[in-house]
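Issue: ligand-bound run for guanosine-5'-triphosphate - logging full I/O for the record.

Environment: standard queue, default settings, no custom constraints.

Inputs:
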Amino acid sequence: MKQGKVLLIGRPNVGKSTFLNNLIGQKVSITSPKPQTTRFPIKALYQDERGEIIFIDTPGLMRKTEDLLSENINKKTLQALNEEVDVVLYMVDPTRKRDFEEARVLGLVRQIEKPKILVLNKIDLWQTGKKNDYSAQYKFLEEEFSDVFYISALKKLHFKPLIKRIFELLPEKKGEKFENLNPYPVLNIDAKTFVAELIREKVFLMMGEEIPYTTTAIVDEIDERKNGVIYIKARILTNNDRYKKMLIGKEGRKIKEIGSYARKEIELATGKKVYLDLQVETDPHWMEVYF
Ligand SMILES: Nc1nc2c(ncn2[C@@H]2O[C@H](COP(=O)(O)OP(=O)(O)OP(=O)(O)O)[C@@H](O)[C@H]2O)c(=O)[nH]1
Ligand SMILES: [Mg+2]
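Outputs:
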């Protein structure tokens, strides 16, 4: 039996979290087309007959910015680089040009002295002509990395050879089974945080460009009622009344839509009926409090 830890790293939006979810077969880390959807490292357990792997999904590293949020998120990824891991999976997205952001991530990856795997994601887009193909700009990396895989995280293409190689690089199991640490696949977040993440995902998916950046979601209460319904009280926090208005929408339609979409997913995840009491609040200091 093999056992080990694998760090997922790459710039924002390359598909790290999508890969993890589709590998594990359930949502452990939220995804969206917006950068830094992942805001802190998520540890999740994958297991099959060959052994078990803790994957550490990290927030995509943004170019150095002035603002507190992305700076703090970047810090979390940099801290995760210090984790004791066995393999590093460096993911790139050839539908986008290589740029300074990518160069920075590569610089960090180069400093890690562990077995490394280069993964070129989104083949369903750039190999088919559906999106630009900048793979030529990533060619030199294929020479630098001894292990290179082409996958589609979204379409679940070519996962098998990649996982086979990861297992080859992992050590034999030494300690207790990871599974015994926690019965759920997500290892480092509690139920409230997980539900808050699902709500935040819906905000990211349903709102325009600027909103995700100014918002977060907090769950204050989860209570299983006698009738079997799970009651959840949650808030979306934003730093400005203007955004609050946009999140609520005309006659409360937007928040209703976000709430209903989130509720359905929580019901799917728990297999129970959910009542979601969702409010929007303005809190100009949420970034300082929660990040
Ligand atoms: N077509 C296609 N889309 C993909 C693929 N992988 C990811 N995506 C999309 O790319 C977007 C970003 O995916 P995420 O998984 O959130 O990316 P990430 O690397 O975790 O991003 P951060 O958390 O911001 O660092 C989402 O809209 C995904 O649906 C893929 O293989 N093919
Ligand atoms: Mg992510």
